[in-house]
Amino acid sequence: MEKTKKLGISKKKTQKTPVKSVSKITPESEYVTLSMKGLSLPWAILLGVFIFTAGIGSAIYFGLKARPVTTTTTDTNAAPTYAANEFAEVSIPYVAGPLQGDKNAKVVILEFSDLVCPYCQKFHNESYQDILQNYINTGKAALLYKHYPLSFHNPAATIAAKASYCIESLYGDEKMFEFNDAFFLNSGTMTQNAYDKSNNPVINLKDKEFYALIGKISGVDSGKVKTCMNSQAALDRLASDEKELTDFQTDITSKGLSQGLGTPSFVIGTVKDGVLTGRLIEGAYPMIAFTNVIEEQLKK
């Protein structure tokens, strides 16, 4: 529910010192009274025309300037429902990738994510934990993860995405998700804001802390991961995931279903004939939004 609230300009009344002979301001009133006593007729006429003209101009100017501004605000008494049908229905080709959960689960949650993105971290630390417990671990849904490191989070975002891919490639999906979990939980201690040679803001990774984190994952050799990160295969995977998202973005923006995708973005639905059809969620929404959409898809 929305309501409109009008905002206006209020003036604080102040007492002013009377201006002798020509004008006088009465403290009890906001109006100015003019006295023409002692002025010759021509001067009185000229002054009258000036006052009339100034009055009309002021009326027009302040009539426009001080017009109440209408703003739309959310009614704080009505909690958002995040009903499933509030999210656009979309379709995207299903392309296999790292999967968390039962590969035969009815519902697929396709996530495009950036490991350095603060909103991705917010989703991971909040809604994702409930999704994992209530839907992924129970076999109702599976999470399909795709990398989309944003350019303004580089070089950290791309480096982290390469490491994630290499861990998946060398050690399997489960270890990749374990790395992602650890990175999201500790990204604040591994990233550092800085500026490049052109004075553009960048996000760097602290190498020592980053590779130490990889080394803490059981069975993972950080040296092998580092070698893989310099491979063409790592670049190809990131390019493939990016193309998947940009092609999808072109499709849905042309249909007026989105103004452009960021991270995290989700398509939650079911797969048929190689196509994932479901609802589009753009951003780190509260759990109720994901619950409503997943439950809707489970009923199909």
Task: Characterize the structure shown.
43% of the residues lie in helices and 22% in strands. It is built from 9 helices and 12 strands. The strands form 4 sheets. It has a 6-stranded mixed sheet with strand order 5-12-11-7-8-6. Strands 1-4 form a two-stranded antiparallel sheet. The protein has a two-stranded antiparallel ribbon with strand order 2-3. Helix 4 packs antiparallel against helix 5 and helix 4 packs across helix 8 (232-254). The two termini are 29 Å apart. Mean pLDDT is 81; it is low at 1-37 and 49-74.
Give the number of domains. Answer: 2
Please describe the biggest sheet, giving its number of strands, its sense, and whether it closes into a barrel: 6 strands, mixed
Cross-sheet strand order for the largest sheet: 5-12-11-7-8-6
Mean pLDDT: 81
Ordered list of secondary-structure elements with their pairings:
Blueprint: E1 2-7, E2 23-25, E3 32-34, H1 41-65, E4 69-74, E5 89-93, E6 99-100, E7 107-113, H2 118-125, H3 127-136, E8 141-147, H4 156-171, H5 173-190, E9 191-195, E10 201-205, H6 207-215, H7 222-229, H8 232-254, E11 265-272, E12 275-282, H9 287-298
Parallel strand pairs: 7-8
Antiparallel strand pairs: 1-4, 2-3, 5-12, 6-8, 7-11, 9-10, 11-12
Helix pairs in contact: 3-9, 4-5, 4-7, 4-8, 5-6
Q: What attributes characterize this protein structure?
A:
300 residues, globular, Glutaredoxin, alpha+beta, 2 domains, two-stranded antiparallel ribbon, six-stranded mixed β-sheet
